[in-house]
Amino acid sequence: MLPPDFDSVTAAAWNKASKVEGYIGDREFRALCMLAAAAPSGGVSVEIGSFKGKSTIGVASVAEAYNLGPVVSIDPHNQPSQTDPDLPASGTSFDDFQANIANAGLQQQVEAHRAPSRDVAVGWNRPIRLLWIDGDHTYAGAKLDFDLFTPFLMDGAIVAFHDTLHEFEGPIRVFVENMLRSDQFGPAGFLHTIGWAQYRPKDGARFRKPRQSLARKAARLIPLVANNRPVVGITRMRFKINCARVPHQVLTPAEFCNILSNKDVR
Question: In the chain, fewer beta carbons within 10 Å around the N or the C end?
Answer without folding.
Answer: N
